[in-house]
Records
---
Amino acid sequence: MTELTTQKEKKPVIFSGMQPSGALTLGSFTGALKNWVELQDEYDCFYCIVDLHAITTRQDPADLRRRCLEQIAQYIACGLDPAKNTLFLQSHVAAHSELAWILNCYTMFGELSRMTQFKDKSARNVDNINAGLFTYPTLMAADILLYQADLVPVGEDQRQHVELCRDIALRFNGTHGDVFTVPSAFIPKTTEGARVMSLIDPTRKMSKSEPTGGCVYLLDKPEIILKSFKRAVTDSDGEIRYDVKEKPGVSNLMSIYSVTTGRTFEQIESEFAGQGYGAFKEAVGESVVETFRPIREKAEALMQDKTYLTQVYTDAANHAARVADRTLKKVQKKMGFVAK
Ligand code: TRP
């Protein structure tokens, strides 16, 4: 962390977060982690495990604790260097909760009511539509604004939340002067493969709620990964060709193979010309196994080294808190709270 705190030149700030609500998937890797790694040299990156957001749906405490630690280990195993990035847990920095409350008072009921994620999640959790689920975006705004982030790398599904964060920042700045940097969503050009679809129903996004075999996890053992790819749904015309509309299953497998091998669609088409789906699916499975193998091995080793992991998230939380508290102090002063 010393490099971070002594670093002279000011790099643009990046903030992003991922919920520890399930194990990391192939989608988390291609859609987020792989891109995060590419940003670590040019930006001052804060990558947060948003455990406070995760409790908007019920979590088993022991599972939550284990997943948070596993997630940090996997961030590092994927190539995020803890000396270059601030890899921390949201609940370790009290300023997130404190600023979130203040921002609740600068966010309109109507704005929160229009969030599509709230509408989707409340439709899916009818027996637990808690206030946290509703105010989820104000906590997310606090995450971003505390670090004066310039860019927020997220998937398309989070664009609306980042837009709301901008609106809140502009509203606050409009009333109190320039306190917050107004951030922008940083959505990777839809590099093929950024959006991985279910292996069972390739018209649906690959998600943690998939039935077994539909979703591939970063820590899955090779046999499991190979089996899921062997069973992946394709179609009946036997041709390996990219066409999302007509051939969603084959196209999804091509995207995955493209991400794991760096090959273009044309190269993949000619590589497998005249071969059946069997050989193709096996090759895709193998490529994922080989991409994940070093990550899984490193993550497993890190999970055994609790002292190191604790050091990483503690140092990161200390650094994050210093940055966040600076912003929070400014805000509290603007509000008229008496300084202690
Ligand atoms: N809401 C994001 C998601 O579910 C996670 C998140 C929380 C986040 N806070 C953030 C993402 C701040 C970017 C910036 O994917």
Note: The chain has a mean pLDDT of 94.
---
Amino acid sequence: MTIDISTVPAQLFIGGAWVDGSEGGTFSVENPANKQTLGHVASASVADGLRAADVAAHALVSWRKLAPRARAEILRAAFELMMVKIDDIADLIVLENGKPRSEAIAEVHYAAEFFRWFAEEAVRIPGYISTAPVTGRRIIETSEPIGVALLIAPWNLPAAMITRKVAPALAAGCTVIIKPAGNTALTALYLCDLLAQAGVPDGVVNIIPTTNREVVAALLKSSPVQTVSFTGSTRVGQLLMRQAVDRVLRCSMELGGNAPFIVCEDADIDLAVDSAMIAKMRHNAEACTAEFSTKFAQKMSDLRLGDGMDARTQVGPLASQSALQGIEDLVGAARSDGARVVTGGDRGDDAGYYYQPTVLDNVSPDAAILQEEIFGPVAPIVEFSSDDEAVLLANAVEVGLGSYVHSGDLGRAMRIAEALEVGMVGVNTGIFSDPAAPFGGVKQSGLGREGGRHGMLEFLETKYINVAWS
Ligand code: NAD
């Protein structure tokens, strides 16, 4: 470990200054591997949130006018700084979130890549000129930054879920207020410090960790905020959309999914097993081969559970007590519905929030565990007998984020991929996250896309200018 946690900022960052909350409150951040307190972070009040919005609105005046090339160079500097500080950031992610350090390192690369990608996109803001149907007129379409953006992030990717929003917002010319998840606030605060070092002017990036729900509600109700970009659960996304409706604010919502993983009998089973493992065991595996189930269960039971800081660890603790409880409840309900535990099925060492890698089979197609999002190392397996049945099962949920298909017949895999009601599909691969690709879901998995060509559009508004002459 390289990080000295006492050097990580633990205050609010507003207008380029680190400050305590105006009401003096703090909250603690815990290490899920040993339940010890890592530090105390200042908690923003409603007044702090509103001040951050005013400061961001003031900073917007010059930031939006800054040459796109100059904004791009600051983003590029942020990418370089993240690479210099990769060990510190990875340490913070392991300490707060619990994931194994190798996964934390991979997350920092992924997170930093958004700064590099959007540094390149900042100089490609779209526009269009067309000839009007009548003579003597031109239609000019230009893109303008929406304004002050409120960015709300979850805990599961403490660095990447912040950079995936901040990078396109800054590239587009917006200024931002970040509300990180409380249990991973230190990573977010560290990244804000890096952005300041990279040359982001005062007031362009502000961060307001808080445990007070009224802060976001007040910002949406009446403040200069013009758009809210949220990643988190569908329930909270719906709540924020209701709060945003009175001011008709733009909403970008990256919400929950349940990622069906479909393995056909003609698949390369070893590749499918490896993909399912890479896809981090979060998925509802639907397999039509017993061979897949057996090999997958074997690999799951071989995984080493432990503190993410231990280089031998392959699965860390869950991020919190409530996450652990949620997994226990889901597995318990599936078992009482008739599911069989092939491997795992219990807590690990009580020193932290550990849960054993678990595979369930004999899962009934209407079991709650297939409807809900599983945030833990648990894979329920459902058998199917035709491709149509697999698609029907996968589509029988209200969410549609990502999905995976494995088949030796590319045409068959593509037919299934196109029939799935989701925003993203991995064909013969367990990884589809890529800063160059549009990430997002359909149905109750959200609105809008992050990353790729689409990411910056979430922070741009189209203005049309009609030019007439005689
Ligand atoms: P969550 O919805 O509980 O919280 C997300 C964020 O919203 C946190 O910062 C939290 O503090 C804040 N929040 C919670 N209640 C709030 C309220 N009433 N008002 C304002 N802010 C509030 O989700 P989580 O448990 O932190 O994260 C896990 C969720 O994120 C999962 O559902 C997962 O699928 C989703 N997620 C989605 C994507 C995607 O791109 N679609 C990516 C990662 C995670």
Note: The first strand starts at residue 12 and ends at 14.
